[in-house]
Design goal:
Blueprint (H helix, E strand, L loop, with lengths): L6 E9 L5 E10 L4 E5 L6 H8 L7 E6 L2 E2 L8 H6 L1 E4 L11 H11 L4 H14 L15 H13 L5 E5 L7 H16 L3 E5 L3 H6 L4 E5 L2 E5 L2 H30 L30
Helix pairs in contact: 3-4, 3-5
Bound molecules: adenosine-5'-triphosphate.
Adenosine-5'-triphosphate binds next to α1.
Length: 285
């Protein structure tokens, strides 16, 4: 395990009210700078797990630590600071209806105390990248679902957060835009952001060589990236080959003629020994 992962879950369980546990015994690390997908059927608990990760819900048991700190004992007044280090793309976008697209996206920068003239160009460039260069002054209500989703994504990534949590971030866009957004996430990841993306889109998952966390019946299964699985397969094959060779060698030795084995001299066998053998012209005279 990573000595100081960004997020660590240790035997975490979660239930809503008095209902059954919907997440059970979750133990995993999100290493610093890692990129992972979260998949699972509808209702498996992906959104609930993401809510636990961004501290919008509490576990019913187990331990969650954030940047090495126990989330359960974090003072409430530290939460806003902590949340500022995390960008979130909510499934339902949560845009501010009275602000235009530009201001929605710039909000995290404004909250961080940056000046408009310092970030205006970056925000405009980001909006152009997500295909909204001509919608900067539009209000969210006038946008399509896919456009609102892209505003939500731009807002989550604009401040280069330490962690990005995205719930179905490509659910409302066409495959081409989905690829473009994935590119945006991988670029952010290259800059050091730890990323977790919940998605049903298996085509998206296949585009990257990243670990896949799958929720099913409350349990989490983590599949390592393709390259790691390939290396594990190659190591297993090499091991099996070496074992087969060792076995074949053992069989060869067992089947070899006795003459090949070192001879043990039997002292009682004097008649045929070099000293007792009188057929060799020994000195009898
Ligand atoms: N606020 C809530 N109160 C009670 N139960 C809830 C609440 N939110 C979610 N659940 C239940 O928890 C389970 C997991 O829901 P969750 O939304 O986390 O799943 P999901 O995998 O994100 O689903 P989807 O892919 O459809 O978005 C479901 O059975 C759901 O009914």
């Amino acid at each position: 395990m990573d000595p100081e992962p960004v997020i660590r879950f240790d035997n975490v369980g979660m239930r809503y009210g008095r209902g059954p546990e919907i997440l059970r015994d979750l133990s995993f690390d999100l290493p610093r700078g890692s990129f992972q997908f979260l998949t699972g059927p509808s209702g498996a608990g992906k959104t609930s797990l993401l809510r636990l990760i961004y501290l919008a819900a509490k576990p019913s048991r187990g331990l969650i630590s954030y940047f090495g700190r126990d989330a359960a004992t974090l003072p409430r007044n530290e939460l806003p600071d902590l949340r500022r280090r995390v960008g979130v793309v909510f499934q339902e976008f949560r845009l501010l209806g009275h602000m235009n697209v530009f201001d929605n996206v710039a909000l995290p920068l404004r909250v961080a105390g940056r000046k408009r003239q310092d970030y205006a160009e970056d925000v405009a460039e980001l909006l152009a990248w997500v295909g909204l260069g001509d919608k900067m002054n539009a209000l969210p209500a006038t946008l399509s679902g896919g456009e609102q989703q892209r505003v939500a994504i731009a807002r989550a990534v604009v401040g280069q957060p330490e962690v990005l949590i995205a719930d179905e971030p490509t659910g409302n866009v066409d495959p081409e835009m989905g690829m473009r957004l994935l590119r945006l996430f991988t670029e952010l990841n290259k800059l050091g952001t730890t990323i977790i993306i919940a998605t049903h889109d298996l085509q998206l998952v296949r585009m990257l060589d990243a670990p896949v966390m799958t929720l099913s019946n409350g349990h989490l299964h983590i599949r390592p990236p393709r390259s790691v699985r390939q290396r594990m397969r190659e190591e297993a094959e090499a091991e099996a080959e070496a074992e087969a060779e060792a076995e074949a060698e053992a069989d060869r030795i067992a089947a070899a003629p006795a003459a090949a084995a070192p001879r043990i001299h039997d002292p009682s066998d004097t008649a045929s020994g070099p000293d007792g053998d009188d057929s060799d012209g020994g000195n009898d005279d």
